[in-house]
Amino acid sequence: MTTTAASIVSRNPADPADVLLEIPAPGPRAAADAVERARAAQTGWQQGGAAARSAALHAVAAAIEAAGAELADLAVREVGKPLAEARAEVARTVAIWRYYAQAPYEPVGAVHEPAAGEGMLLTRRRPHGVAALITPWNFPFAIPSWKAAPALAVGNAVVLKPAPEATACALRLAEIIQLALPDGVFTVVPGGSEEGGALIGASDVVSFTGSTAVGNIVVRAATARGVPVQAEMGGLNAAIVLPDADIDRAAAHIAAAIAGYAGQKCTATSRVIAVGAAHGPLREALAEALRAVPVGDPADPATVCGPLIGERARDQVTAAWHGLTALAGGTVPERPGWYAAPTLVEQVPSAHRLLAEEVFGPVAVLLPAHDLADAVRVTNAVPYGLVTSVHTADLDTALGGLDRLDTGMIRINAPSTGVDFHLPFGGAKSSSHGPREQGRAALEFYTSSHTYTLAPARSA
To answer: pLDDT, tens digit, for every residue of 364-390?
Structure first.
């Protein structure tokens, strides 16, 4: 992918000669115009009622399901997602729209007794107006959907700016969604930072997923305008393995979380903390599991680790492991596209970037810990706090350390990857800003609460 002031070009990361799309960048004026059209359409969308919004979201789900094979193939080609994962993402996208299709019928407030006298007090949640959604390329259908569906369900209009690398996916998703919605209620504005900045400057609520650096810019810009904003950003996620864990099972889970989709997930595992006697067996089992991960063409159903999204991304990964001791990987496969082998390194200096920054690739560091308390300390000693996985046969022991972890999500005997879309999603520290997204939390974020006092016109 390349973006210039004049155009957006999207390429297949498994075959960079394959150009999916080349279109003019619309510019910031087009983004602002899209917000105005959305604002004009929003009132009718909200006032159309719960039944109409619910039916429309159900129709979106059905249309995405009908186009499932096409969408999965498009994700494989544009963002290099392995076919099995692409199919799973489309299925999850359908489920997201069906879940939120019931949300228009949810209560939007409550009735309270006044402190004194006659009448009643009401609370009611109302949509903000126009939601600006800025989304990454790695989940080109699911992330736009888990932001757009709740925003639409409660009566907002939506303008989506996808990452340039996922432009073709976003435009095709929009074609499907727009067939079920009134004109102007859902719009896609392709582009880069100029278009994104214009959306933030004109919308009523902002939701962002992407890098920490860009997320901080988004938060500052939205906060300066006084509009609600949430930002899901980076992760430097740890997997803690205790001595009593099933080592082979833990190694399989962790290898999948390191190498799946070439580690291009904010929930990927990038640090593996082996506690006490677990270190030796885990070191051997995890290296073996990573060497066995199928690397190759993302269109092959057997592939687990496909290409990185681009040349720059591949080079960042290889630079990160350069000069380190690799237990597995540390090589670049000789094939077209932007590939890197799943890699496990050890004996990494404490100031190394792999222990301080999100690299976003299939590489992880193996670290020792004396006991669970030491493992918790190591886990917390980074600027991020998205997700931690803990592997043990003794839940009592695990529970003793869970409350000390500075992470928003904790997964026991499961990979760090994986999202339950009906539950709140988000992290701590530099991983997230603002309210959680997904589940019922999203319905609250895309609305504001208003309190009404209803007093009788005359005394009884």
So the answer is: 999 999 999 999 999 999 999 999 999
